[in-house]
Amino acid sequence: MKYYSQVISPTTPLLVVIAIDQSGSMNAPFTHCSMILSKSEVASMVASSIIEELISRSYHADKSRHYFDLSVVGYSRYEVYPLLCDSCHPVSAAIYENSRPKLIRRVIEYITPDNHLRLVPEAYYEWIKPQAAGTTSMLEMLDCVGDIVSDWCESRQNHKSFPPIVINITDGLDELEYTSLHTQKSNRLKEIGTDNGKTIFINVCIDSCPREERLYFPSEKDVPPSHAAAILARMSSPLPEQFNSLHKRYNGKVISQPPYISLCYNEAVLDIIPMLNMAVKLPDENK
Description:
The chain has helices spanning 39-58, 138-154, 180-191, 230-235, 244-251, 273-279; strands at 14-21, 29-32, 35-38, 68-76, 79-82, 91-92, 103-111, 117-125, 165-170, 193-194, 197-198, 200-205, 215-216, 263-265. It is of the alpha/beta class. It has one domain (14-279): 3-Layer(aba) Sandwich (Rossmann fold), CATH 3.40.50. The strands form 4 sheets. Strands 1, 4, 5, 6, 9, 12, 13 and 14 form an 8-stranded mixed sheet that branches. A hairpin with a 2-residue loop joins strand 2 (29-32) and strand 3. The longest helix has 20 residues, at 39-58. The protein is globular and about 45 Å long. The two termini are 25 Å apart.
């Protein structure tokens, strides 16, 4: 079977689930390009930019189309809750076409992964407000997202769809120690899929260390066991082979051999969107 080959269409939409860590540790500062923001602000910016990407790509051939099902959840204080609408149940991204929130504009100094300086005009709709309080409810999030993905994949009309993409945005910290349950629940999520392949579970880790240390879809061998993202690395999906070129493009050179894992550590949103663009194949003609 040729995995991840399906074209996105109204009859075979893509499910994208975004989970955002909103625990108290996300109040810590983070250097985003040339600016000092809180990790919760960066997480909200990343999520908002991905949401806008899906909405924009839903507009095809002069019409908004049901190409994407979208669910955005936050987690903290042992709870998981919807952030974009009143329910965690996925809805078509196209419904948000005419209800955009405030547009934020600024120019930032962006250091590319190969250490080149770029001045980048940044504008994004603030779909998600920053929030940070309480404990990290990682296990509850894995249960909730697993149920969302499972219910969607079990629906008959989605059997032939592109497999779901789950993006977890977190600093990886937890007041509770990681246990085998984290591995079990993430493995359950990664095994759910459609006829076209299994769910891609991407972990975007926003840490407080110097911005110079970055990992963009590394080999698991590139992440030492003592690293802040080591647990998330083990929880992440293997990167499908069709995306291997992203590793070389954004690391400047091949520093390790595949298989790579779906982990981004201290990467800006500009480096997350290209994977989504590569994954999504829209029809060339009106359908």
